[in-house]
Write a structure and sequence with these properties.
Chains A, B: Belongs to the beta sliding clamp family. The structure is a homodimer of 368-residue chains. With 368 residues, chain A is of the alpha+beta class. Chain A has three domains: 2-114, DNA Polymerase III, subunit A, domain 2 (DNA Polymerase III, Chain A, domain 2), CATH 3.10.150; 127-244, DNA Polymerase III, Chain A, domain 2 (Roll); 248-360, Roll (DNA Polymerase III, Chain A, domain 2). Chain A contains six helices and 24 strands. At the A-B interface, helix 2, strand 9, helix 5 and strand 19 of A face helix 2, strand 9, helix 5 and strand 19 of B.
């Protein structure tokens, strides 16, 4: 194989597919990036068996062929080469020469034949949305997946498409995040649980432009994201996702409305008295025109008042401050509405149209 | 004590003195910042017994007094408070209330009486130079101090003032860095070994402005840096510094001149084949009009040629690439001169006037 491409094209492609290179694996071939120039395009591929990414880069093929190169070394070399044309040429025993200007690298490659190709997916009608929207909806929900593997379904996000609405849901047992997005077109019902890791990596690769489109294909076991020159294929998480409808309620005894930034800064300040791993709740006392937030730890205490507009009863309730912070950070509204039933029932942060709903369970506390 | 000052003034002062708060100590009082408002100025102090920093901040004193507050919590609180006036007030048992707008923090302080004050220094004629120059000279030499404590003198830098020349030297057994600076005024001979840690912290606090001045006082056991509203006092390292004159030589058999950036990028590229801790040398082959650099490791090999102007003999010599990179990074000249005697003798990177001299010992290698 002998190919020529610019450093910038190569670096971009390597950056994209690297997201699917596993950090730890018992199969050395998975630590490689496959350069496939057997046809008339140059395709880079990486695959950790759950998640596979393929991208086409511009360049010239002088000799057809393919080679698998250690992802870490290869990407380091590309990154540090001068900004000029790079020639990659394979020799005997998969030895690979990477040349740019007067710099010559010689590294060992592996035969492309051992590489695990991406699964072949029978693609049907794609769901279309902008890169911007997909990137945003991932950011706005990904923080509330569970990071332990004891309940596999909690490590993924539900993608549910019904007519022209995409609903994305994540939950970790203490909270639920829901985002609803209006799509341009109308589709039949689709439901899939996409691994959180896949979404995080996809989100990093997405340019996030409003004008660029992503096409998403769902099959029984896989999801495929296609955008720009890139294809991401991921396994889905098997099983029936949690029925969240029964946990949602639009009844409330107390509704408060306040400035979002003020609330977020206040909770953020309060948490500095809480050491990592320490589970000190923030106590919220809702009164007529103001809400008092208090926290107390071994390090000291903090209290602060925030102006609010209130409907309904007064309330004293405690929360894990991190859960409030996570939700408030991804809400773009200037003012937010919080709905409460009582001190034992979840709090809902949501807008009127329920384009977002963040449910957070309260915690027990000793009144201070 | 009760004082009022703006968040920005307080945050700046806390940031400065925090540099002298030890990360680990058996004396909890040293983890504190002392706020001293017993006179008519507000002074912040921190002291780890080797290094002490004191800075004056603007503000209003409503009640004279002093208090020592845990540096970490106090600086976190200040950082997260709104950008407005902050009131600090002490109550019974050194309880301290920090208030800003509607946020109230209550933390435990410690009596200022237990605090270790900075030593009193009999200051004589100061050495004056610009903040920019001091910050630069530290950056240009600090990388070649030794980080282990087995030879205490190697963990510091020699500051030698003679007439109008300040010479700063650091060495770690494998290399020596020397910078000479012309001062505006003329002074009597002064010599002191300043701890590397002190210099690193001072360098972080210096604004680095050309027009701002630093005054440096040397006494038998201490050095004092005075600039802006800040005083830094540090112990000196005791003992006679190494005699480096006998290691320096202006004889050479080979002199080469080349573009600095080209050389630096080339060595930087070569090192990516060397894993941390692995001691692979870079082999330099000096020929008539070009210099070849080669490195070989388990990961592969790299070679590259650089155009040079040469005087004297051809040479084959090996170096720890990191040492070359460290020196080249802090040289601002576009072209550099390297002087060699033979493959066993040190290489000198220096300019004509010897405002900088970087000596680097070669390493043995197996010809490849």
């Amino acid at each position: 194989m002998k190919i020529i491409c610019t450093k910038s094209n190569l670096a971009k492609g390597v950056g994209i597919v690297s997201k699917a290179v596993p950090s730890k694996t018992t199969m050395p071939i998975l630590e490689c990036i496959l350069i496939d120039a057997t046809t008339d395009i140059i395709k880079l591929t990486a695959n950790d068996m759950e998640l596979g990414i393929e991208t086409i880069i511009e360049g010239e093929i002088l000799d057809k062929g393919m080679i698998a190169l250690d992802a870490k070394i290869f990407s380091e070399i590309v990154r540090k080469l001068p900004d000029n044309e790079i020639v990659i040429e394979t020799g005997a025993n998969d030895q690979t020469m990477i040349t740019c200007e007067k710099a010559k690298f010689n590294i060992s490659g592996k035969s492309g034949n051992d590489f695990a190709y991406l699964p072949y997916i029978e693609k049907e009608e794609p769901v279309r949305l902008s890169q911007y929207t997909l990137k945003e909806v991932i950011r706005q929900t990904i923080f509330s997946i569970a990071d332990n593997e004891s309940n596999k379904l909690m490590t993924g996000e539900l993608f549910e498409i019904n007519e022209n609405i995409l609903k994305v849901v994540s939950l970790d047992g203490h909270r639920i995040s829901i985002r609803k997005i209006e799509l341009k077109d109308t589709y039949g019902m689709r439901k899939a649980v996409v691994p959180g890791k896949t979404l995080m990596e996809v989100s990093k690769i997405l340019s996030g432009e409003v004008d660029s489109e992503v096409q998403i294909y769902f099959t029984e076991n896989h999801v495929v994201f296609e955008f720009d020159q890139t294809v991401v294929v991921s396994r889905l998480i098997e099983g029936e996702y949690f029925r969240i409808e029964q946990m949602l309620s639009s009844d409330y005894e107390t509704k408060v409305r306040m400035n979002k930034r003020e609330l977020l800064s206040c909770i953020d300040r309060a948490t500095l008295l809480v050491k990592e791993g320490d589970k000190k709740p923030i106590i919220i006392h809702i009164g007529d025109e103001s809400m008092e937030l208090k926290i107390q730890s071994q390090l000291g205490s903090m209290d602060e008042e925030i102006f609010i507009t209130k409907e309904g009863k007064d309330l004293l309730i405690g929360f894990n401050p991190k859960f409030l912070i996570d939700a408030l950070r991804v809400i773009d509204d200037e003012e937010v509405n919080l709905y409460f039933m009582n001190a034992k029932a979840p709090c809902f942060i949501k807008d009127e149209k329920e384009t977002y709903v963040y449910l957070i369970l309260p915690v027990n506390f000793n009144a201070i």
